[in-house]
Specification:
0% strand
Length: 41
């Protein structure tokens, strides 16, 4: 039996992928910020 898919499931997947990428970018920026903060103090 074929798995049921919602019509907007692909849009949701794309949105989730973008959100994951943004979270990864944010984590990198936070770590760079912490390194800079340690260098200053």
């Amino acid at each position: 039996m074929k798995k049921f898919r919602y019509a907007l499931e692909t849009v949701l997947n794309i949105k989730e992928q973008k959100q994951k990428m943004e979270k990864e970018k944010m984590a990198i920026l936070i770590s760079k910020y912490e390194v800079q903060k340690k260098q200053i103090s």
